[in-house]
Task: inverse folding
C-alpha cells in the first residue's frame, strides 16, 4: 500500500507554517502546499477539515515562546491571534491555558489515506505505473554524465535493511549484479524514498557525499472516553530543541481525539511497534494533563507509531540553532537526479508544493 510508512503514520495535520523560520524551504513549501491541499481536497471531495488549532502556554516562559511564534507568523502573513481567557473558557472549557492561547485559523486535518489514494489514482490515470514490494538493490548512474539510469530491484526478503547501515540494501547483500539483464531504465531519477532516502543517496553519490539517517520515533495514544472533548487541535507551547512539537491533541475526521507523538530516537526504520515503557507513558500523560486537566489517564492507550526521517537530532522548530531544513536539490555531477532528504513534518502539508518545486528544478 502506498504511503504506509511516514505519510500515513502521523497526525494528519495540515500545518499553517508557524515554526520553520524565514527563508527556509519548510516555510515556503508548507505555506504554499497548505493552500494547494485545501484547494485539491475541496475540488475532489477528499475528506478534510479546516478546524484550526490552539497553541497553549501555562507559564511565562511558554508565553514568551508563543510571542515568538506570533511575531514570526505575522511577519509572513500567516493568520494568528491571541485568545482572551474568557473566550478560551467559553469555546473550549476543558482546555487549560493559564498563561495564554494562540489561535492558528488556517491549520486543519486531512484523511491522509484518501489523499494518497487520490494521488495514486491520478498518477496511474496519467499513465504512471506503481511498483510495490520492489526493494532497490543497486543503481547505476548514466554513463559519462548522460544517457539512462539503470535500477535493479530484489525480490522482497532477499536482503532486509540493516539498522547499522545507512543503506537499505547493499550490493553485497543480494545476488543482483550489473551483469543481470533485468533492470529498470529512466532518464530522470527522483529520490523521494522517505525513511530510506539516505540509503538511495548513498547508492548513487560518492562516499564523501553520503548521509547518515536519524530516526525519530513517535508513539500516538487513543482515548476511550467521550470527555473531555475539544473542537480544535491543541498544541503545547513549543520546546526549543525538541524533536517534535510536543504531545499534542489532534482530531480525526470522525471527531475522535488522539494524542502524540512523543520523541524516541531509534536505530531501525522498521521499529514501528508502540513503546510500552511505563516511564515514557507517564511522561506523556503528564504533558497532556498540563493542558487537558480533566483527562482520565486510565482511558489513554498506546495506539500506533510513526518515524520521522531526519538528517540530525534537530528540533522541529527553527530556533536558529541546529535547525535542519528540507534537502531538495538537483545534484551536481549526475545527470537527471533530484534528491529529497529529511522530508519530515511538514512534509504531508508540503507534498503538492514539493512536487511543483521538483518539477521546476528539472524543467525550468
Result:
Amino acid at each position: 500500500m502506498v504511503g504506509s510508512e511516514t505519510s500515513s503514520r502521523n497526525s494528519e495535520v495540515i500545518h499553517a507554517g508557524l515554526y520553520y523560520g524565514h527563508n527556509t524551504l519548510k516555510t515556503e513549501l508548507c505555506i504554499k502546499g497548505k493552500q494547494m491541499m485545501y484547494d485539491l481536497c475541496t475540488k475532489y471531495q477528499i475528506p478534510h477539515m479546516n478546524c484550526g488549532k490552539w497553541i497553549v502556554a501555562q507559564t511565562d516562559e511558554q508565553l514568551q515562546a508563543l510571542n515568538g511564534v506570533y511575531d514570526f507568523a505575522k511577519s509572513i502573513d500567516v493568520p494568528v491571534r491571541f485568545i482572551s481567557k474568557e473566550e478560551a473558557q467559553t469555546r473550549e472549557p476543558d482546555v487549560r491555558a493559564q498563561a495564554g492561547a494562540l489561535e492558528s485559523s488556517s491549520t486543519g486535518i486531512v484523511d491522509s489515506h484518501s489523499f494518497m489514494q487520490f494521488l495514486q489514482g491520478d498518477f496511474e490515470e496519467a499513465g504512471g505505473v506503481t511498483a510495490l514490494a520492489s526493494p532497490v538493490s543497486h543503481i547505476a548512474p548514466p554513463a559519462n554524465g548522460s544517457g539512462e539510469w539503470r535500477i535493479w530491484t530484489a525480490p522482497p526478503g532477499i536482503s532486509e535493511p540493516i539498522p547499522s547501515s545507512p543503506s537499505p540494501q547493499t550490493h553485497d547483500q543480494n545476488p543482483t549484479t550489473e551483469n543481470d539483464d533485468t533492470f529498470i531504465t529512466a532518464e530522470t531519477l527522483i529520490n523521494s524514498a522517505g525513511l530510506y532516502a539516505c540509503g538511495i543517496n548513498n547508492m548513487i553519490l560518492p562516499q564523501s557525499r553520503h548521509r547518515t539517517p536519524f530516526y525519530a520515533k513517535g508513539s500516538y495514544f487513543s482515548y476511550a472516553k467521550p470527555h473531555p472533548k475539544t473542537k480544535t487541535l491543541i498544541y503545547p507551547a513549543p520546546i526549543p530543541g525538541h524533536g517534535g512539537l510536543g504531545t499534542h491533541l489532534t482530531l480525526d475526521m470522525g471527531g475522535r481525539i488522539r494524542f502524540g507523538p512523543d520523541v524516541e530516537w531509534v536505530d531501525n526504520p522498521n521499529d514501528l511497534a508502540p513503546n510500552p515503557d511505563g516511564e515514557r507513558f507517564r511522561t506523556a500523560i503528564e504533558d497532556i494533563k498540563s493542558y487537558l486537566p480533566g483527562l482520565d489517564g486510565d482511558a489513554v492507550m498506546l495506539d500506533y507509531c510513526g518515524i520521522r526521517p531526519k538528517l540530525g537530532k534537530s528540533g522541529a522548530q527553527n530556533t536558529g540553532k541546529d535547525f535542519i531544513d528540507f534537502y531538495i536539490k538537483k545534484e551536481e555531477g549526475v545527470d537527471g537526479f533530484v534528491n529529497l532528504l529529511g522530508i519530515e513534518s511538514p512534509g504531508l502539508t508540503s507534498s503538492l508544493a514539493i512536487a511543483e518545486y521538483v518539477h521546476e528544478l528539472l524543467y525550468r
Remarks:
- The helical segments are 25-44, 60-75, 85-91, 112-125, 197-204, 278-291, 347-363.
- The chain is about 25% helix and 25% strand.
